[in-house]
Design a protein that fits this description.
With about 300 residues, this protein is α+β, with helices and mostly antiparallel strands. The protein has helices spanning about 1-20, 25-35, 100-110, 140-145, 150-160, 165-180, 200-210, 215-220, 290-300; strands at about 50-55, 70-75, 80-85, 115, 135, 225-230, 235-240, 250-260, 265-275, 275-285, 305. Helix 3 packs antiparallel against helix 4 and helix 4 (about 140-145) packs across helix 5 (about 150-160). It is about 35% helix and about 20% strand. A hairpin with a 4-residue loop joins strand 2 and strand 3 (about 80-85). The longest helix is centred in the first third of the chain and has 20 residues, at about 1-20. It has a five-stranded antiparallel β-sheet, with helices on both faces.
């Protein structure tokens, strides 16, 4: 009896082996060759539905003449849902809002304690007063770039990058592509007007969403004022935030101002409404702080969130 059972087992194994490896059409081998993981249990995909923001009543941008910006956008950053917008995809001059990208790229490349040398002194417009051959840490240059919007600080971060300023700008454009900023082109790390340097409120919301993930940079942009020095404590630089709303409007924590002749007044603000992160962007405004206050008032009086179900 035992010999018979053993013979049956051997026969079944032989037939199974023949079934699997017999030449010709074999669905098992065909499926395995197309997808070796077809017979493995994979991890289940999980997702979370974010509550949907809704402004009530929904205002018509044309009915808001008190907002002077040619383009503006309030974006819920968790769900990336626009709450109120006017021409959010219109290409505009970014001015110093580009310094958010400058800071992100510099943070990713340098150690914060790394000491950089000032090789070229930038004297145009806003500057923290760096001197030629001054040696200063990356962290303090980031403070200058983001708090005071110092052009000399942003340029020093770029000029010490491998390949120099041109390579740094290429890195900024790679960052823009990675963030899916389809209507953005960077030509310099400072924000000087250039006919090929442009962005949109929609793209700046993508940049803001990436920026606030970095808690160190976010802390810098929400700093009202600070004094930093070079590594030799020879040169001290007092930095005062260029954002008049910082410290005056509750729940607002930066992010970046920008002003040039062609760009007008630009402002990207990070605002928390009931612990929900929002980006408020105004471009080509004649009163960026007043416009932002008006948008915040609309948020505070009319914004709610509703759960989404499948």
């Amino acid at each position: 009896m035992r010999n018979r059972m053993l013979a049956k087992v051997v026969m079944y194994l032989a037939l199974s082996f023949l079934f699997v490896f017999y030449p010709g059409r074999n669905d098992f081998l065909r499926y395995y060759s197309l997808d070796a993981y077809a017979f493995q249990e994979l991890a289940r995909f999980s997702y979370r539905l974010e509550p949907r923001p809704r402004l009530s009543p929904i205002p018509d941008p044309l009915s808001l003449p008190q907002i002077t910006a040619e383009s503006y956008l309030v974006m819920d950053l968790d769900s990336f849902t626009p709450i109120i917008a006017k021409a959010p995809r219109r290409k505009m001059f970014p001015a110093s809002t580009v310094k958010l990208a400058t800071a992100l790229l510099a943070y990713d490349h340098y150690d914060l304690e790394k000491v950089l040398k000032v090789n070229k002194v930038i004297t145009q417009e806003v500057r923290m007063g760096l001197k030629k051959n001054e040696r200063i840490s990356v962290l303090n240059l980031l403070y200058g770039t983001l708090i005071y919007s110092a052009n000399d600080a942003a340029y020093t971060l770029a000029e010490n990058y491998p390949g120099g300023v041109d390579a740094f700008v290429e890195g900024m454009n790679r960052l823009a592509r990675r963030l899916n900023m389809r209507d953005t082109s960077f030509q310099n790390p400072i924000g000087f007007d250039h006919r090929e340097q442009y962005t949109t409120a929609q793209d700046l919301a993508l940049l803001a969403r990436e920026f606030i993930k970095n808690h160190i940079l976010l802390t810098i942009t929400s700093t009202k004022s600070i004094t930093v020095s070079d590594v030799d404590y020879e040169n001290f630089h007092y930095l005062q935030s260029s954002n008049e709303l910082l410290g005056e409007v509750p729940h607002l924590g930066g992010l970046k101002t920008g002003t040039t002749e062609q760009a007008g007044q630009n402002l990207i603000s990070f605002y928390k409404f009931r612990n929900k992160p929002l980006a408020i962007i105004v471009l080509k405004s004649s009163d960026r702080f007043g416009d932002t206050r008006q948008l915040i008032n609309l948020i505070e009086t009319g914004l709610g969130y509703e759960e989404v179900s499948l």
